[in-house]
Amino acid sequence: MPAFALQVIDRAVIVEVPTTCSNLELPDYQELDRKIETVLSRLGEPPIVVFDFSKTQFFGTLMLESVLRARKLCESKGGQVAVAGLHAPIEELFRLAHLDELIPSFASVREALDQLETRRSEN
């Protein structure tokens, strides 16, 4: 069973992050990165990727690295990455790592898609 579920809505990819990532290893994240890259290669530009952390209570640096790799890939195609549904400890981790300055955060996936679609259509 895959560690991460990806859902495509229009030109947006929703990455459903599991409840806990403590049992995931490097190959799981490498597979996530490959899936995101494959899906983005098929989508129109500019793409949107939203990481849904609403069910997630814990994750480590490998997850942060995947988010940053997705951001770099999206931005190279003129797109955006966002996170949604951050619980307090994860939100604090993003703040401490200064990722809140690089990656927008939204209360829900729906809010993220609405805001990012609006920004995309304005450009």
What does this structure look like?
With 123 residues, this protein is an alpha/beta fold. It has one domain (5-14, 27-109): STAS domain (Transcription Regulator spoIIAA, 2-Layer Sandwich), CATH 3.30.750.24. The protein contains four helices and five strands, in the order ββαβαβαβα. The protein has helices spanning 26-42, 61-76, 88-96, 109-122, and strands spanning 5-9, 12-16, 48-52, 80-84, 105-106. The chain has a five-stranded mixed beta sheet with strand order 1-2-3-4-5. A hairpin with a 2-residue loop joins strand 1 (5-9) and strand 2. Helix 1 packs parallel to helix 2. The chain is globular. The relative contact order is 0.17.
CATH topology: Transcription Regulator spoIIAA
Query: Which series of helices and strands comes N to C?
Result: EEHEHEHEH
Helix content: 40-55%
The total domain count is 1
The end-to-end distance, rounded to whole angstroms, is 39 Å
What is the strand arrangement across the widest sheet? 1-2-3-4-5
Question: What is the CATH architecture descriptor?
Answer: 2-Layer Sandwich
How many E-type strands? 5
What composes the largest sheet? Answer: 5 strands, mixed
CATH evolutionary superfamily: STAS domain
- CATH hierarchy class name: Alpha Beta
Determine the number of helices (DSSP H or I, runs of at least 4 residues): 4
Low-confidence stretches: none
Globally, the shape reads globular
Rg on CA atoms, Å: 13 Å
Structural class: alpha/beta
Proportion of residues in β-strands: 15-25%
User: Averaged pLDDT, please?
Assistant: 88
